[in-house]
Write a structure and sequence with these properties.
The protein has about 280 residues and is α/β, with parallel strands linked by helices. It is built from eight helices and ten strands. The strands form two sheets. The chain has a five-stranded parallel β-sheet, with helices on both faces. The longest helix has 16 residues.
């Protein structure tokens, strides 16, 4: 039987896939790809059979059990099978379900990681998700639920938010205002003036950004801005406040100016036999 490779396509741009992922696409016999995989990336596998198996919210999508079966069937017919997933296969990609279905039959599986959208978004804004003295933790969250549970009452409201300093919501467009309202009323780390950045189609030519506060998001100010045809990422936290970086930069300059000449190292001291405690400098 063939080998199935779960390959991370990255956040969107074709040139952000890993070298290993691109090499596997080039030699693949068949590629099962997500709906959000860019056409330019599919050009990296010109000789492969391309099968769309993507899932889009509110649209007709392939059932996960059907995808699992197609991967198993392909392993009996081809040597190199690529399951191309947006972002990283191991983050909100249902990779576990596909891996278990394949391993149950004895099919060899390998996973090739990719850049997840949150990290690509931080790179695009040139703002870190962590910041010394401000943010020591980051949480990646999705409100998407398993298909069989989609209509249950408990899934009609956003899930409980973690207590991390910086929060990144995947697939949260339709619940954006609810997310903000819940954070303002329940979170100790986030308030109405906490910065919010929303990014659509990260790393692609269609990328857009919306920047404001949780208070504005809670009032639905971003609802009309969203493009339902593009994947959206909602990022929340004090680390995203630009003024922190200005302050940190100014502090670094002040510290440099206040540096005492006496703190410079005198290489001549290495030839001394003894340095008494009174002459030691920190």
């Amino acid at each position: 039987m063939g080998t199935v490779y779960l390959v991370g396509a990255g956040p969107g741009a074709a040139d952000l896939i890993t070298v290993r992922g691109a090499k596997l696409l080039a030699k693949a016999d068949i590629v099962f790809h997500d709906a959000l995989v860019d056409g330019e990336m599919l050009a990296l596998c010109p000789n492969a059979i391309k099968v769309p198996v993507g899932k889009r919210c509110g649209q007709l999508s392939s059932a996960q059990e059907f995808i699992n079966k197609r991967l198993v069937d392909a392993a009996y017919q081809y040597q190199t099978i690529v399951r191309l997933k947006g972002g990283d296969p191991m983050l909100f990609g249902r990779a576990d379900e596909e891996i278990q279905a394949l391993k149950k039959i004895g099919i060899t599986v390998e996973v090739v990681p990719g850049i997840t959208a949150a990290l690509a978004g931080a790179a695009s804004m040139q703002q870190s998700l962590t910041l010394r003295g401000v943010s020591r933790s980051v949480a990646f969250i999705t409100l998407a639920q398993a298909d069989k549970d989609a209509d249950t009452p408990e899934n009609t409201q956003p899930i409980s938010n973690p207590s991390a300093d910086t929060l990144v919501y995947y697939m949260g467009r339709k619940d954006a205002a609810k997310i903000a309202q819940q954070l303002i009323h329940q979170s100790r780390n986030h308030h109405a003036d906490t910065p919010v950045h929303i990014l659509e189609a990260v790393s692609t030519k269609r990328e857009r950004q919306w920047s404001s506060t949780l208070g504005e998001l809670a009032l639905g100010k971003a609802d009309a801005w969203f493009d339902s045809s593009s994947p959206a990422l909602i990022m929340v936290g004090e680390a995203l406040r630009a003024s922190h970086r200005i302050t940190a930069s100014n502090t670094a300059v002040v510290h440099k100016d206040l540096e005492s000449p006496s703190s410079k190292i005198d290489n001549g001291l290495q030839h001394s036999q003894v340095i008494t405690n009174g002459r030691r400098r920190a």
